[in-house]
Amino acid sequence: MATIPNKVKSRLIAHVKKYQNILASAKARDVNESDTVTIVKDILCDAFGFDKYTEITSEYAIRGTNVDLAIKIDNSLQMLIEVKAIGLDLKDAHVKQAIDYAANQGTDWVILTNGIIWQVYKVSFAKPISQDVVLQINFLELNLKNENDVENMYLITKEGVSKSALGEYQVQRQVLSRFFIGAILVSDTVLDVIRRELRRLSPNVRIDSDQIKTVLLQEVIKREVTEGEKADEARKKISRAANRTLRKSNKDDGGDTPPAPDCPNNGPDAEPKADD
Hints:
Elements: H1 6-29, H2 33-46, E1 56-62, E2 65-73, E3 76-83, H3 92-105, E4 109-113, E5 117-124, E6 130-138, H4 147-155, H5 158-162, H6 165-175, H7 178-185, H8 188-201, H9 209-220, H10 223-226, H11 229-253
Parallel strand pairs: 3-4
Antiparallel strand pairs: 1-2, 2-3, 4-5, 5-6
Helix pairs in contact: 1-2, 7-11, 8-9
């Protein structure tokens, strides 16, 4: 996490408690969507630091419809914000609506909120289009004495958005996901390390990488971690990263770049690996 400027911390401390009281009162009165939008817009201005007149656009037009709010910095669209009435629970249909807005606009980031719950989504423009909830904040439960709460708030401040803090947080979160770690655990590189350590413990026992992989997949790692779309995407990204590393290394050495092997197949058709 990037260092949070003191002026940002001070601004958050000065306004979060104020808007916690406003939101609690609005929820008790069950205000409508229009009034909730007004509160959200004020929060974006006072707490998150966006200029109400030049950086926050209401009823932003997208292909014949309108999303409630849009954030622009230096006239560049940063994110869309879909607001629901404060008394409504955020549901899958609301998420789909918000993601559809982002997909139609070609925007990576979209926030769905009822003023109290703020859900931040990263949209992936693969086929089919998908989304990942990167951050969820309950505004009424924020405690700015808690460093984690301050860091989460910073991600959607003007300063954080300007420095792409959300993107960096999303990448860190993705890399530390169980799918990435699961894919790395059964990669050839890690299997070779485990095999070497096991042979050091038992030098007279014949151990090959496929045996280790089988134990990892069947007895150590949960099946949901190594199967499915997210696991496949993790393997693809690890393979691409390996290719980039090889290309860079080869460029530094001045030679040709051999292709990096794909992330290992975890299925029953995986090719056996010869022993040393």
